[in-house]
Amino acid sequence: MAFFRRIIRPFLSLLITLLPIHPFALRSQGSWVGFAVLFPLLFLQGCNRTGDSESKTVITIGATHIHLDEAKRDFHELLSDLPQSAKSQESIKQQLLNQLVDRYLILEYGKEHHLSVSDAALAAAVNSIRSDFTEEGFQEAMLRDYIDFDQWKEQLRKRLLEKKIIDQVTAAMPLPDHAAILHYYETHADIFTTKREVKFRQIVTNDLRKAKNLLKRLRQGEDFDAVAREKSLAPEAKNGGLVGWVEKGELEKTMDRALFSLKPGQVSAIIRSPYGYHIFQVLASRPAGVRPLLEVTREIEGEIVRARQHAFLAEWLKKQREHVKVQVDPKIFQLLEQ
């Protein structure tokens, strides 16, 4: 999930960061295993068509009127990251609505302070995302999820603007010192105890016949790196299919069994998953153990910063609600489900 993980993680309940984690992401370094859904940061479920009822104002934030079509799109962006069993729970819907209002409050602050995302910055973000895919993989995923490209770009612009605003309002927060990092490490030892890991690369296709042909080429001696760059549809194809390190039990079961049955240098048979047909090559492995402090210092720093941001933003948003008019249509959930 190269771009998504690289930029932002979910806010917990308050949008500390703005692009949700893809459910198939492996690590913060940015590798993907699956790419059945191209742009989970937006969770668009197709192209919305605006009719008369869709232009009805359902949320008012300060001087900004949020129409039903926009609220639907943004609400389902949040909703679709949840397991199916949670989507119908009224308490969950209310939490998501609160998050949505928080998101609009953040954008209203940006409007009041004349903050924006330039076309150049948006183009750079789009290019960064596209660079994580082969052109074929990018176009296929767009078609698969019926995503309207222009609508997707505008949603991306909003998410980038939210991040820019939050970066600004939290800019004065101090970074954690060594004592705080050491305390976190010592009190969260279980987090840094790792299972067995393997480093691997993969080739992904959407067609069994293609996968068989590629496996045949590999068994005849062709270089895995070169074949992955040429034929894999996964975003890491440009890096020779390199995914990186993954812990045992972290992946879908079929993938996990296949990977951890291989020795370094070995190539797997064709593995079918919900995301396509995979061929794996294990490059290295390392046993279970405890990661040293030096290795995890930056991760710990990030976790402490996120926790502090969460507390800071909770208070900041509370103050925003006190001085910015917020009105929500009492029939909001009925309207969103139409």
Taking the alpha carbons of the first and last residues, their distance comes to 33 Å
Q: What is the CATH topology descriptor of the largest domain?
A: Triger factor/SurA peptide-binding fold
Note the overall shape. Answer: globular
Task: Count every beta strand, where a strand is a DSSP E run of 2 or more residues.
Answer: 9
What's the rounded overall pLDDT mean? 82
Could you estimate the helical fraction of the residues in percent?
40-55%
What order do the SSEs take from the amino end to the carboxyl end, as H and E?
HEEHHHHHHEEHHEHEEEHEH
The CATH class of the largest domain: Mainly Alpha
Q: Quickly count the helices.
A: 12
Q: Low-confidence parts, pLDDT < 50 over ≥5 residues? A: 1-51
From the 3D coordinates, which CATH architecture of the largest domain would you assign? Orthogonal Bundle
Please give the largest β-sheet: 4 strands, antiparallel
Which structural class matches the secondary elements? alpha+beta
What does this structure look like?
- With 338 residues, the protein is of the alpha+beta class.
- It folds into two domains: 2-174 and 299-336, Triger factor/SurA peptide-binding fold; 196-287, Chitinase A, domain 3, CATH 3.10.50.
- The protein is 47% helix and 13% strand.
- The chain contains twelve helices and nine strands.
- The protein has helices at residues 2-7, 68-79, 90-112, 119-131, 135-144, 149-169, 178-187, 208-219, 224-231, 253-259, 293-323, 332-336, and strands spanning 57-61, 64-67, 193-194, 197-205, 242-247, 271-273, 276-286, 289-290, 326-328.
- A four-stranded antiparallel sheet has the order 5-4-7-6, sandwiched between helices. A three-stranded antiparallel sheet has the order 2-1-9.
- α2 (68-79) crosses α3 and α7 crosses α11.
- The radius of gyration is 22 Å and the shape is globular.
- The two termini are 33 Å apart.
- The model is unreliable at 1-51 (pLDDT under 50).
